[in-house]
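tokens incoming
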């Protein structure tokens, strides 16, 4: 990825004004006679585009949100995944915090004590290379029990955000959604794979639970079909993948015209979080921001001044540009040396019994 970013930057960005964001974006997007949404190039363009906005904001002495229409929201509500307790002595798997009827409510209570008013979890794991799949009656029963017990703990003080990562068929999701409707989840995320907005729309029509999607989509051109078909009422573009800050702002405007809301996706660290915060502040249809717990730990160490999080809300920075400075010395001291790609995808079909 570093080589790709350096190559695109050298050919299309170096020597241009960082204010030429629209022109630079179109030229890079069209290079090589591609001119279509694509994950790798979308990520490369996003990286360069985020850097341009940071430079422009600093040059003008303004946070990026002031250059995109100005502040609408003073604070941003956030949610986190359920993560296993660090003190777990039994080697708890990552997924155990999602699908265990005892662990999931306990972790929900722990995050509520920190101040969170929403938590996300995927009770359908593992991810599979042969998805989408049907789901067994035993799995249906277990997921319903997990959600039921989480709602007992959460009451009406904490939203439950059910993530599915495109693992199920349309029919399987509809069966599951009918069981979960009494527990009022805020959304079901990526109920089916993102490649087929028509099937996602079938799910949306079959349940009262709002549908959310967008983390694997690139540019407004892929989001337009989601809105046209009524596939989702909550959009989750990832600024570090979808095409950058301005592209996300355009998607938010499209969503606003369809009365759809914005819940930017985050799983790429504090720089993408910084872009998300700038966008959340200036988008009227902002709903909630994904956070990685309360932005403490290593993600705080990566920034010269950490993201401020208090009682379930992000307190946006008012500093120029993206508002946060990467500590490059910390980043350079922790190079990734593994060869695994996250998330892991099972390479054999998942049993449905």
């Amino acid at each position: 990825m570093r080589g790709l970013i350096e190559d695109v930057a050298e050919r299309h960005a170096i020597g241009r004004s960082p204010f030429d964001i629209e022109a630079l974006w179109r030229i890079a997007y069209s290079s090589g006679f591609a001119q279509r949404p694509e994950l790798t190039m979308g990520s490369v363009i996003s990286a360069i585009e985020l850097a341009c906005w940071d430079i422009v904001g600093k040059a003008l002495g303004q946070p990026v949100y002031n250059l995109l229409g100005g502040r609408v929201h003073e604070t941003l509500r956030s949610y986190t995944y359920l993560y296993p307790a660090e003190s777990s002595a039994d080697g708890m798997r990552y997924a155990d915090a999602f699908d265990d009827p005892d662990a999931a409510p306990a972790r929900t209570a722990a995050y509520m004590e920190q101040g969170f008013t929403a938590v996300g979890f995927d009770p359908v794991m593992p991810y599979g290379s042969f998805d989408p799949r049907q789901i067994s009656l035993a799995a249906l029963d277990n997921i319903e029990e997990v959600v039921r017990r989480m709602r007992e703990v959460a009451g009406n003080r904490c939203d439950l955000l059910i993530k599915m990562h495109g693992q199920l068929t349309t029919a399987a999701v509809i069966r599951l959604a009918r069981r979960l409707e009494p527990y009022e989840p805020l959304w079901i995320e990526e109920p089916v794979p993102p490649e087929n907005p028509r099937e996602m729309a079938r799910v949306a029509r079959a349940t009262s639970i709002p549908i959310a999607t967008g983390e694997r989509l690139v540019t407004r051109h892929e989001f337009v079909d989601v809105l046209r078909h009524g596939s989702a009422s909550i959009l989750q573009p990832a600024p570090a993948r979808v095409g950058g800050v301005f592209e996300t702002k355009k998607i938010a405007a499209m969503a606003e015209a369809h009365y759809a809301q914005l819940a930017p996706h985050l799983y790429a660290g504090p720089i993408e979080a910084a872009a998300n915060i700038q966008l959340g502040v200036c988008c009227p249809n902002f709903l909630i921001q994904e956070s990685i717990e309360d932005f403490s730990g290593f993600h705080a160490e990566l920034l010269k001044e950490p993201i401020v999080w208090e009682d379930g809300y992000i307190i946006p920075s008012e500093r120029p540009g993206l508002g946060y400075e990467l500590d490059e010395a910390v980043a350079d001291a922790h190079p990734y040396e593994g060869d695994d790609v996250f998330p892991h995808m099972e390479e054999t079909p998942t049993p449905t019994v």
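note: The longest helix spans residues 39-60.
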